[in-house]
Amino acid sequence: MNKIEKRTLKENQITDAAEVVFSRQGYDNTKMEDIAAQIGVSKGTVYFYFSSKENLYMAITYRAYETLIDLFHRTIFDNRNKKGIDSVLSLMRAFMDFSETNYIYGEALLNYYSFVRSTSQGMDNNKLTDGMSVQSTPIEITVKEIERGIRDGSIRAGVKPQMIYLNAWALVIGFMKLNDTSASSKMTIMRIDVQEWKDYMLEECRNMIES
Hints:
The protein is mainly alpha-helical. The chain has 9 helices and no strands.
């Protein structure tokens, strides 16, 4: 194993530990020594690979985007013989399922834009992990499927694909935010079954965008 492979292995081990600790304690309540203790190394070792807690959290965010992008590609492949609208709704469902089963990743994606905004305002861009351009990829994938739906006639024309995306995204974000309160329960704070709510939301989105 060369130096690059050893470094990548150690970074992945630390990121794995950070996911566990952030999930258990929350970002604000976590210290770098907590992550070091989780993996059984010194705090200095963690700082050697990640210059700050923010940088480590961004590494988790990058993982989240990579996992989501892979999920989106598989979803599109599974819907390649269906109408564009069916692919778009499947992407929405996949995203909502993703946020439920990967809580720390869903939270990281929700926090990304506010996180970047707060660090950039503080002029501390060194806290940000390089390569976060992947954040635009899920958007591009979804917009392309919306455009395919417009071409095949399943999604109504006359509205910008980006506008349709934003409306769909707002629904998904609303689901993710409100569903956070249900924790491990299958019921929301309004005592509505989560799966039933998800089905209803997707049907309403279909009614909104279909031709």
